């Protein structure tokens, strides 16, 4: 980035090749942002696995915190040089672009929704899908998030907030210390990703997990990126997700913990408040794959599903490990700038 090395979490080379092939497969896809292509590719895989057909007319809600970041920066740079906007600059950089193109690719006639609620975007998409299904307006919903934020301006914004990790070659091999509540500096690293889930109501033979609770809450803003010391929004969302379930029944919590000092500690404080009798095992994936902003919550859902399926706890290597005695009920947390928290409770 401007001749300076910056820590990021990129897609593997094999995945990049798949995205490149997808872009070349259709002339209309050549002008799309990576965030849209990530969503199309991931959605194809998910629908194929679950066996949905275009005639099912399932709904789609795939959100993004940043949207078409790379393409927007490219078009804006061209505009500054020529004083003219490219013909497709508007439709290809709008946020609604993501779900619309996924619907086009999958040929479904169901409703398409794209939204941005910062880093809790994907879990808000899950909430929306549940609401649509429970209302009887749709039988199936494809939900998730897609993010391609590895651009100079986006990274510079995080650096301006003083929350981004700084490269130090003399440190240990974990530059992002997500969930380490004793760290003395911010260590957030941006990642790119897309993740989606297929939702249906009731018991299904091919279901891999069941949603047994959901919660949400928003804090009153003190400033644009505020979160209270004890993450009041998380306390409320976790209590709502628990419902009548005893907190002691929760085996694992997958935390949002982006690797910042205040963000990680406030969520940890909230967990201690709600689970005061017995703190569940907790873990995160951001130390490994970075923070993919609006897509991150659904990646945590995927992590929960993997643990439920394989009955194996995925730990954080630099945190003292407390293995759960069982793996049955897992809570997933996500929160974005402005304190908009979501908690989802999954079970086998």
From TrEMBL:
SUPFAM superfamilies cross-referenced by the UniProt entry: Thiolase-like (SSF53901)
DNA-binding keyword on record: no
InterPro entries xrefs: Beta-ketoacyl_synthase, Ketoacyl_synth_C, Ketoacyl_synth_N, PKS_Beta-ketoAc_synthase_dom, Thiolase-like
Keyword Transferase: yes
Any GO BP: fatty acid biosynthetic process
GO MF annotations, alphabetized: 3-oxoacyl-[acyl-carrier-protein] synthase activity
Name of the protein in question: Beta-ketoacyl synthase
Species name: Aquaticitalea lipolytica
């Amino acid at each position: 980035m401007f001749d300076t090395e910056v820590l990021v979490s990129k897609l593997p080379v094999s995945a990049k090749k798949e995205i490149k092939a997808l872009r070349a497969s259709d002339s209309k896809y050549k002008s799309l942002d990576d965030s849209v292509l990530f969503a199309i590719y991931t959605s194809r895989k998910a629908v194929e696995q679950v066996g949905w057909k275009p005639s099912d007319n399932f709904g789609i809600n795939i959100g993004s915190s940043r949207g078409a970041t790379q393409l927007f920066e490219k078009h804006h740079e061209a505009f500054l040089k020529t004083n003219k906007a490219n013909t497709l600059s508007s439709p290809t950089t709008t946020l609604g672009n993501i779900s619309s193109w996924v619907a086009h690719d999958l040929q479904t006639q169901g409703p398409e929704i794209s939204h941005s609620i910062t880093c809790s975007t994907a879990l808000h998409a899950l909430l929306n899908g549940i609401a649509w299904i429970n209302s009887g307006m749709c039988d199936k919903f494809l939900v998730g998030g897609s993010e391609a934020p590895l651009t100079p301006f986006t990274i510079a914004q995080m650096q301006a907030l003083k929350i981004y990790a700084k490269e130090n070659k003399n440190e240990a091999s974990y530059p992002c210390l997500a969930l380490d509540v004793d760290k003395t500096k911010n260590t957030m690293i941006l990642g790119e990703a897309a993740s989606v889930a297929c939702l249906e109501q009731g018991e299904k033979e091919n279901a891999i997990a069941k949603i047994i609770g959901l919660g949400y809450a928003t804090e009153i803003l003190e400033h644009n990126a505020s979160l209270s010391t004890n993450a009041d929004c998380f306390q409320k969302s976790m209590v709502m997700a628990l419902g009548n379930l005893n907190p002691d029944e929760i085996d694992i919590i997958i935390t949002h913990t982006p690797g910042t000092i205040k963000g990680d500690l406030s969520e940890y404080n909230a967990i201690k408040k709600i689970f005061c009798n017995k703190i569940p095992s907790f873990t995160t994936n951001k130390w490994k794959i970075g923070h993919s902003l609006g897509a991150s919550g659904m990646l945590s859902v995927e992590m929960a599903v993997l643990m439920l399926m394989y009955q194996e706890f995925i730990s954080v290597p630099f945190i003292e490990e407390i293995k759960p005695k069982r793996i049955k009920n897992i809570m997933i947390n996500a929160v974005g700038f402005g304190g908009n928290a979501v908690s989802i409770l999954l079970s086998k």
